[in-house]
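[User] Once you have settled down, look closely at the record that follows, and write a paragraph about the fold.
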Amino acid sequence: MSDISLHYTQYGAGAPLLLLHGNGEDHTYFTPQMAPLGAHRTVYALDTRGHGRSPRGSAPFTIDRFAEDVGTFMDEHGLEKADLLGFSDGGNIALTFALAHPDRVSRLVLNGANLAPAGVEPAVQLPIIAGHALASLFAKKCPRARRKAELLDLMVSQPQIDPAALGALTMPVLVIAGSRDMIRLSHTLLIARSLPNSRLKLLDGDHFIAAKRPEAFSQAVLEFLLDQA
């Protein structure tokens, strides 16, 4: 049971689709997707705990905690089952939720997700590690540094998902990433290969393909969601 209620924006009609943004962002990351996806789904774009307009609460920032918040949100809104689309840390949250509650996920879209920090390209991960160490030094005395350290810790120490665990997920999964993503291509391929009912889609671009190529991203997601196979 969560100690908070998540802020969200709702749009469209149809089966429920939850959108989960990345680290340090809020639900507005998915603004370009709301109309095209909302034409076929009731879209709920959530603010993760301590992000956007969602309260911080007292619980630690962990991917597991964020996944539990998703379950509470679904309970509060009477959603027994939903499609989940998660970007970056939001993808890690969606995957963690699906592993804990596979019966509550109809279809899963993982955009730029990773199973462990080692899945991130070193050129991106090393500055994150350095920034986390620096922010941690000042965290006790500076609220801003404490906030930064808390967010960066999510990328330095989490998630920790065994690829073998993905074999238990039988729902359809779309693994979608940029061709020049900050997630190693080999790692994205590992995720797709470890999921028994997945398909892989690479779009030309970097980690932020949903924001920078919204039409192509939305089309790829809709093709997957509406596929009756």
